[in-house]
Amino acid sequence: MRLVRLGTAGAERPGIQTEAGVFDVSAFGEDYSGQFFATDGVTRLRQWWARHEKECPAVPEGTRFGAPVAAPSKLICIGLNYADHARETNATPPEEPIIFFKATSSLTGPNDEVIIPRNSGKTDWEVELAVVIGKKASYVEEGDAMNYVAGYCLHNDYSERSFQLERGGQWVKGKSCDTFAPLGPALVTPDEIADINKLRLWLTVNGKKMQDGNTADLIFKIPFLVSYLSQFMSLLPGDIISTGTPAGVGLGMQPQVYLKAGDVVECGIDGLGSSRQELKAWSA
């Protein structure tokens, strides 16, 4: 299934995306929240859809997509998880995953405007595969880890590099600005993806190709990441793990290239759809 959330920011309603279009499933009675995933919501929704598909209204074209997961407790990111990205930033590929967080307040819809923060001079892009947790995971074995995955999403991990790298402290400062986590358009369940380890990721800025990678090149694969993270914290239903970005970020270019107001960033992952963000300067 392809789960989407639709409508005005803060008042999104649940939907399903199919080959025939996008349909409003508000009558199902639940948003795609942690509680939904914790109670085997995908299975229940699948069964409900089989009975009520013909009754669900089609969603008009141009309707806004929100982030496909409502109010996750955590947005966990993995740094330097592609060897080519580590090389371009003059970093040594890690022996264990580098973990940081993005504030969940940075989540936004896949096609919403991205706001360049006040005092920013180095806002950058990062196309990433995100994993959504389907049930509570604590001390999970790697061989069992995929049983805890509800689905996958496209994520653009925007980063303000001067906040991240030049201001001291944790990377979270450069990762958590409002609108810095466009997610979606859809949460795609695992049965829709033939091989999660062979998906192309790409990103353009103003139509110019910047990133063109493949999940085959992940240093730490998804089962390992789920198991590894679960050794340090409980992963709750609806939590998001963003698995890292391939080479081609502005930080790694010579000279470095950063985003400015009016720039348009588009990105996508095979099977997960694409997104588009226009950059806008912060204003009071």
TrEMBL record:
Domain Fumarylacetoacetase-like C-terminal: 74-278
Keywords: Hydrolase, Metal-binding
Any Pfam family the entry gives: FAA_hydrolase
Any GO MF annotation of the entry: hydrolase activity
Family from the record: Belongs to the FAH family.
Protein name: Fumarylacetoacetate hydrolase family protein
